[in-house]
Fold these 2 entries.
Entry 1:
Amino acid sequence: MDKSDKINFEEEFEKALRSYGYGFPETEDEVAKFEEEADKIEIPNLPPMENPSEILKKGKIKKFGLTHSLRVDHSAVQNMARAAREGKSISEATKRKMIEDRKRAEENQED
């Protein structure tokens, strides 16, 4: 992307944001209008959030399983993996490590 494309993209992106009412006010008039409108917006009172330390004191968090099965195109996964390796093969040491990691992950999933 050259500089002119980047500038055009930024201009179009800003126009799109502004068309939906997003973006930062830039002029004094825009700031005044924003402040006027912001005073009309009612912000709901949200319930207080639980202290993270208290959550951690409760102990282990139960994992939730998937409610539906995922269908995976394994040939696509293999092609992506090969591309990530830049077409190189996997060493035996790496294969052993992958098998160990998978076993460990499956054991942890059963907990």
Entry 2:
Amino acid sequence: MKESQIKAVHQRDLRRLLKSLGVYEAVSCKTCTCFFCGCTIDEDTIAAVFPYGEEVCFCCGKPECCSALIDFEQEESYG
């Protein structure tokens, strides 16, 4: 996936996406956290999945975290 691409995934396909990225077990065991606020991520709280370096990162659904993700993506594009 190109870093500048945004793809939408339906909730029913989320598990397949997480498995393909090799992070399903970590998400289902609740060991993943939001990149921005540090809250625990599970299948119900994932708002976004994005690459950062070699890592698969997550954003929760809190409005301030979603806003931070947009700002972060813009900084990465221009930085």
